[in-house]
């Protein structure tokens, strides 16, 4: 009996194996950045930040042979799995060429007679919640190698592994196509904005303080509330986490909590407002969302509502170009205040021109909404396939 065969346990007709028994794990390292002899070579070197969510690599550094001999950095060959185990935990890629990597990444090489590389990649993707739940660290979170090494993986025969991986890969590529289409539509909207306003900025004589053309809302403690299950009246009770809720990528249409009553006057804003984080590390995400129905903000959110001279579509796209971190204050905990935003200068074109922009963008938004709906359906399908794949039901 081989080592691989002895590692496999028969459970309910589907073999299971422990990754440590059928994979090799390699650590990376970072050459001393103060040593110029270590950088500028020909070997791509990556950290977790150089792996995109879709698995593409974008190396920003090249290291030398000297760096490889005098540091913990090492090179792995094409086909090696690269799993981010520190910082952006759970991102995974397959090396398309020889590459070196930092200590934020664990390289995994499966035993070829037992485990298909693409199948293992799909399995690791399915473990994102597990990795996140096991991440530890006060400021920089990560998982230990043992968290990965001790994972049990369903292990059908290689042809079946390849079949499962191909199904999941095809579903994932359909999702990627929808995301790419949305990105193109986003670029189209921004192009319309630039053509109508940015390129002709000098022709607009009116420039105002943001505080003179918008009303501000500061969050406060949420009072009461119950689970939102689609109620079409009342007030959404919004937290920063609701900005990441599926379907809320651009416009806030739902939340975890809801209330039939408004909150504090300073925290209750109308539909057609823009919200953004105002405290902590979430400011750096630079996320802004348009609220499509009345809502109450918690203390970590802030909102602005345009007055009569500013159209919400114009405000939203102008604000999208604005970097929140350029205004945040606070030493240990970054934060935004009304006094930071009030004096920000905003060009205010004639309202008719803003409304022309809004009409053009509305058509693009309808297309985007169709793609977002289809993407949500594909996400649900992919999660179902992923769940079934590793239970022997696909």
From TrEMBL:
A Pfam family the protein falls into: Methylase_S
Superkingdom: Bacteria
One Gene Ontology molecular-function label: endonuclease activity
Coiled-coil segments on the chain, per record: none
Keyword Zinc: no
Ranges of residues in domain Type I restriction modification DNA specificity: 19-181, 265-376
SUPFAM superfamilies noted in UniProt: DNA methylase specificity domain
Parts of the chain that traverse the membrane: none
UniProt keyword annotations, A-Z: DNA-binding, Endonuclease, Hydrolase, Nuclease, Restriction system
Family classification: Belongs to the type-I restriction system S methylase family.
UniProt protein name: Restriction endonuclease subunit S
């Amino acid at each position: 009996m081989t080592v691989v065969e002895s590692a496999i346990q028969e459970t309910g007709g589907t073999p299971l194996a422990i990754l440590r028994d059928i994979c090799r794990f390699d650590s990376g390292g970072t050459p001393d950045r103060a040593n110029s002899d270590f950088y500028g070579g020909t070997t791509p070197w990556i950290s977790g930040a150089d792996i995109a969510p879709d698995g593409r690599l974008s190396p920003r550094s090249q290291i030398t042979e000297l760096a490889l001999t005098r540091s913990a950095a090492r090179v792995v060959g094409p086909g090696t799995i690269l799993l981010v185990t520190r910082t952006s935990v759970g991102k995974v890629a397959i090396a398309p060429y020889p590459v070196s990597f930092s200590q934020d990444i664990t390289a995994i090489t499966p035993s070829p007679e037992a485990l298909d590389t693409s199948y293992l990649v799909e399995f690791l993707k399915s473990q994102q919640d597990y990795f996140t739940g096991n991440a530890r660290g006060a400021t920089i979170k990560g998982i230990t190698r043992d968290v990965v090494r001790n994972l049990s993986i369903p292990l059908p025969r290689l042809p079946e592994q390849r079949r499962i991986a191909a199904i999941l890969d095809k579903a994932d590529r359909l999702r990627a196509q929808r995301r790419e289409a949305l990105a193109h539509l986003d670029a189209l909207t921004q192009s319309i904005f630039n053509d109508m306003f940015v390129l002709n900025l000098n022709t607009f004589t009116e420039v105002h303080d943001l505080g003179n053309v918008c009303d501000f809302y500061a969050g406060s403690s949420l009072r009461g509330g119950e689970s939102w299950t689609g109620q079409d009246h009342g007030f959404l009770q919004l937290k920063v986490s609701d900005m990441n809720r599926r379907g809320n990528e651009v416009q806030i249409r739902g939340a975890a909590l809801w209330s039939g009553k408004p909150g504090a006057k300073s925290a209750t804003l109308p539909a057609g407002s823009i919200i953004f984080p105002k405290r902590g590390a979430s400011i750096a995400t630079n996320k802004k969302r348009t609220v499509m129905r009345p809502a109450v903000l918690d203390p970590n959110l802030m909102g602005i509502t345009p007055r009569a001279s500013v159209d919400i579509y114009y405000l939203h796209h102008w604000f999208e170009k604005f970097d929140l971190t350029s205004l945040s204050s606070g030493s240990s905990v970054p934060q935004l205040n009304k006094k930071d935003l009030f004096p920000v200068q905003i060009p205010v074109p004639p309202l008719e021109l803003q409304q022309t922009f809004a009409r053009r963008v509305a058509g693009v938004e309808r297309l985007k909404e169709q793609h977002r709906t289809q993407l949500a359906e594909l996400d649900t399908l992919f999660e179902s396939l992923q769940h079934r794949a590793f239970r022997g039901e696909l």
